[in-house]
Specification:
Number of helices: 3
Number of domains: 1
Distance between the termini: 30 Å
Largest sheet: none
Oligomer: single chain
Low-confidence stretches: 61-65
Helix content: 25-40%
Number of strands: 0
Strand content: under 5%
Order of helices and strands: HHH
Radius of gyration: 14 Å
C-alpha cells in the first residue's frame, strides 16, 4: 500500500511503516476540515481539529493537544 502524507503527519503516525520521500515534486497545498454546524461546537471535534492543526503546523508536530 502506498500513500502520500504531509511529512510531520507521516512521522507522527508512521506506526512502524517505512517512510520514503515522495519521488515526485509536489507543491504545497492547503489542508481544510469542514464540519456541519451541528458538530462545530462538539468538544471531541474541537479537540480533533486542534490535533490536526498541531500535526500540520511546521515545528509543532510532536505536541498533540
Amino acid at each position: 500500500m502506498v500513500t502520500c502524507l504531509e511529512k510531520q503527519l507521516a512521522r507522527h503516525t508512521h506506526a512502524g511503516l517505512v517512510i520514503k520521500p515522495c519521488p515526485l515534486p509536489l507543491q504545497p497545498f492547503p489542508i481544510s476540515l469542514y464540519l456541519h454546524d451541528r458538530f462545530h461546537r462538539d468538544p471531541g471535534n474541537q479537540w480533533l481539529r486542534l490535533a490536526f492543526a498541531a500535526l500540520c503546523e511546521p515545528g509543532k508536530s510532536s505536541k498533540m493537544p
